[in-house]
Amino acid sequence: MTEEVREEVSTNSYVYGLYIDEALAMQNNGSNYYYHADDLYNVVAMTGTNGDVVERYDYDDYGQPTIQYLQPQADPSVAEASSIQNPYLFTGRRYDEKTRLYYYRARYLDSRPGLFTIRDPLEYIYRWDESL
What is d(CA 106, CA 103) in angstroms, rounded to the nearest whole number? Predict the structure, then answer.
């Protein structure tokens, strides 16, 4: 499955795998990048077409990202925004760099305090069966 997103000047296209949040590749302004994720679908690195790692990602317990740029023949630098405009990070969810929120379809996660911005809209409530 592919998705094309057009924002202001840049155009990004994505290729997804079989899992619901499994991004496999991104094309950004003619450059191709490939996602590398761990077993929880956290994106841990992005590589270019030559196989060199372009960015690495690390997260705290609730998904607050640390992005490390890896430029050839330069010391790595750390920033809060992706240099290649990668929106998919923690658990494969879309991260908004302006608001610093993750989009979880029905609600947003603020990774700084580790809280969702609203209650679960379906309001699942687990109750003990009192007849036991």
Answer: 8
Contact indicator for 4, 11 with CB cutoff of 8 Å: yes
Lowest mean pLDDT among 1-10, 13-22, 43-52: 1-10
Q: What is the pTM of this model?
A: 0.80
Which distant-in-sequence residues (6+ apart) come within 8 Å of 72 by Cβ?
52
Residue 77 tokens, joined: 């630098």
The contacts of residue 68 (CB under 8 Å, 6+ apart) are: 55, 56, 57, 58, 76, 77, 78
Distance of CA 58 to the CA centre of its chain: 11
Interacting residues of 40 by C-beta distance below 8 A, sequence separation 6+: 91
